[in-house]
Amino acid sequence: MEIELQEIHDFIAAIPPFDRLQDDILNALTTAISIQYVRRGGDIPADKDAPPTLHILRQGAIAMYSGKDNLMGMLGEGDICTSFCAADVMPDFYVKATEDTLLYSIPCDQLSKLVEQDESVLHFIRHSAAQRLKEAVSDMQEQSSSNLLHTYAGDICRGELVTASPDISIQDGARLMSEHGVSSLILMEGSSPAGLVTDRDIRKRCVATGLPVDNPMHKIMTRKITSLNASESLFDALLVMTRNQVHHLPVFDDSGLKGIITTTDIMRQEGLSAVHLTSTIRKAESLEALVEASKMLPRIQLQLTNMGADLRHVGFAVTAVTGAITRRLIELAEIQLGPSPVPYAWIAAGSQARREQTSHSDQDNGLIISDKLQPGDDEWFESLARFVNDGLDACGYIYCPGDVMASNPKWRQTVSTWQGYFEKWIEQPEPMALMLSSIFFDLRVIHGKEKLLNKIRKKILVKAPKNQLF
């Protein structure tokens, strides 16, 4: 097989559902694929009379619309746009490239013939992401067991570990990743990892910014690496990935760096797993899609209990899904409202902040807004809070009986106002202050600027030790 075809073959072979195809079908699919390069802002397809086509994103990003600029969703590297193949494709549906984009494309009819013997792949092609989400929820509700708790990170860290020096050039590092067929590179200083670079980092921090490729990799690497111990389960890996919104986890054992696992590795273990569901939540195009996703929570809790998971595991799993739904609601709100006038942080309190939620807990949340807030800016934040709180209620997270929610102006305030709240609770600890502090001392940022909460915490750390109650 020619080098170019081999690269296409290897890339597709790593992406569900094509990773389950037999070699002869995968080879036929590879040779049938055409490569398209679309400039930022370009239409997909460029020819409106082109036959319905499935597109696999090799590089770049696309946005999907219906009607007049009604954004339905966005896809990035490794994602598959099946919308043109779906039976229910809308007549006013269209797609634009939001970055310079490289596509692997194949007409839907031709692809269907190639995979007609594999019902699961054929089903994937002919259904939209929203339909697959609904069916994924249904499938998850029918599952009664899982092997994620009983498979360990060290068990699937096999194969060659690809590392390099932080001083290797971006071009040489990318070439090394391509040669070994990996999507990430661990950069080592001696025997210790200094950072991690993924395909996405190269695209976003180098190509998109115009950074010359002869620069060293350490210019674009992620320095704060989220990692996992080899003895931890894939369920733990799932929680870490979901909580930190990462797709690559270096794995360590007593001897040091053992390997790296990805979301694809976990998906291969579990099929339509919670990883896949959480990923789909992040791409949900509407509140209705998120409501469908939320229906799985009671079953997840029961399923985990039946598997012998402890309370910590159950709380982490439920809270991870809650966090994913909350973040997607915020993103959908920002699509409607436009960018925020000043920086902010959406915060969770109580059981969600402690990652101890059950299905379905009530809401405890708020907004910390930059002190740069100007008169009139709060209208934007009120609309955001109303959208998210109403959305969470529709997803089964009922309104807080005590109205501790961002839609309440009292809990939608600037950094300095929040600092004043905590100072009063610490200095005048009457019963109401103690009740509120029991909720808000466990704050955690779900979306937005962590530094806004850190400013408040610095004040608390100075004040709290002076009161014996804290």
UniProtKB/TrEMBL annotation:
<feature type="domain" description="CBS">
    <location>
        <begin position="221"/>
        <end position="279"/>
    </location>
</feature>
<dbReference type="GO" id="GO:0008773">
    <property type="term" value="F:[protein-PII] uridylyltransferase activity"/>
</dbReference>
<dbReference type="InterPro" id="IPR018490">
    <property type="entry name" value="cNMP-bd_dom_sf"/>
</dbReference>
<keyword id="KW-0677">Repeat</keyword>
<dbReference type="InterPro" id="IPR000644">
    <property type="entry name" value="CBS_dom"/>
</dbReference>
<feature type="domain" description="CBS">
    <location>
        <begin position="156"/>
        <end position="213"/>
    </location>
</feature>
<dbReference type="InterPro" id="IPR014710">
    <property type="entry name" value="RmlC-like_jellyroll"/>
</dbReference>
<dbReference type="InterPro" id="IPR005105">
    <property type="entry name" value="GlnD_Uridyltrans_N"/>
</dbReference>
<dbReference type="Pfam" id="PF03445">
    <property type="entry name" value="DUF294"/>
</dbReference>
<dbReference type="Pfam" id="PF00571">
    <property type="entry name" value="CBS"/>
</dbReference>
<protein>
    <submittedName>
        <fullName>CBS domain-containing protein</fullName>
    </submittedName>
</protein>
<keyword id="KW-0129">CBS domain</keyword>
<dbReference type="InterPro" id="IPR046342">
    <property type="entry name" value="CBS_dom_sf"/>
</dbReference>
<dbReference type="InterPro" id="IPR051462">
    <property type="entry name" value="CBS_domain-containing"/>
</dbReference>
